[in-house]
Amino acid sequence: MPQSLENRVLAGRAHNEDAVVVSLPAGKALVQTVDILAPVVNDAFSFGRIAACNALSDVYAMGGTPWCAMSIACFPEDLAAQAPETLQRVLKGALEAMVEAGCVSAGGHTVRDTEMKFGLAVTGLIDPGHIATNAKLRPGQVLLLTKPLGTGILATAVKADWEGAAESEELIRTWAGRLNKVAGAAIVRFGLDSATDITGFGLGGHALEMARASGVSIEIAIHSLPLMGEVLEYASNGLVPGGSINNKLYCACRTRWLCEKDEDLENVLFDAQTSGGLLLAADADKVEDVKAFLLEGGDLACEVGRVCAQAEAPLLIV
């Protein structure tokens, strides 16, 4: 562990081996979140990294900085006995992401389970005077998405060993294994006050959540969505996970199509994402600067919609 990170742990292990004592910088508030996943790729190291990136994402979405995290590992007893290197590689993948984020790995907990699962309980630091939320959208703002869509559908194709599964798995590793660190820094640098990370509810579900919380409507430009690989072809072949279908059904009554409906794109819009990008709301005079910052840092900066005054439905597809 880098010395600058190690120095944050003041008292080492407390009487409880799962507890540590850390210092809190003056003027900072805490952000706390927890997330846990079943594997979405076959490689254990990549799975650990993706699970860590996914858990850290909520902190970035608020404009915070990950500070420390505790691991949560669930695994079958026979796996621990017969292939202990699998769990070791999961932990190494997670640690790589935490070190990249500047986040202390502060221990964790293991549970015997019938299926492997892994995640983090994360504590982050944030300026209490500037917290991005999903409830501060304003009409006229532009919505920028920082990662392409399709991890749920691609993961289904990987599990089914469908044609192109290897390429799809590599895309998942590349994008879901990427921290939202650059997008989180954009929130702080440009004073963005409304954002969310795109995870289990899909882009459509999380956008709807933002619109309802803010008392506005959101227009999503359906043909402007950035897509991963063969996601549309997979969707047309029915490789859509149950969670994504549930998202679509739940959001249907609050969604209006103002253009010809495309069922495959609809499935992608509501596809449940793992470690998806951030959806950032930027005022018109900041959009180009925010886009340039994201692109320079290696993120996408796709304009996928805009915020408008409250209309007939919170989510409008154009």
Supply database-style keywords.
alpha+beta; globular; four-stranded mixed sheet; seven-stranded mixed sheet
Write the layout of secondary structure elements.
Layout: H1 3-6, E1 9-13, E2 20-22, E3 29-37, H2 44-61, E4 65-75, H3 77-82, H4 84-101, E5 104-112, E6 117-126, E7 142-145, H5 151-159, H6 165-176, H7 181-189, E8 195-197, H8 202-214, E9 217-220, H9 231-236, H10 242-251, E10 255-257, H11 263-269, E11 278-282, H12 287-296, E12 302-308, E13 315-317
Parallel strand pairs: 4-5, 9-13, 10-13
Antiparallel strand pairs: 1-2, 3-6, 4-6, 7-11, 7-12, 8-11, 9-12
Question: Can you summarize this structure?
Answer:
The chain is an alpha+beta fold and 318 residues long. It has helices at 3-6, 44-61, 77-82, 84-101, 151-159, 165-176, 181-189, 202-214, 231-236, 242-251, 263-269, 287-296, and strands at residues 9-13, 20-22, 29-37, 65-75, 104-112, 117-126, 142-145, 195-197, 217-220, 255-257, 278-282, 302-308, 315-317. The strands form three sheets. A seven-stranded mixed beta sheet has the order 8-11-7-12-9-13-10.
- Main sheet properties: 7 strands, mixed
Can you count the beta strands? 13
* Low-confidence region ranges: 5-15
Structural class, judged by helices and strands? Answer: alpha+beta
Continuous helix count: 12
**Beta-strand level of the residues, as a percent range?**
15-25%
Overall pLDDT level = 93
Shape: globular
User: What is the H-and-E element order?
Assistant: HEEEHEHHEEEHHHEHEHHEHEHEE
Rg, rounded, reads: 20 Å
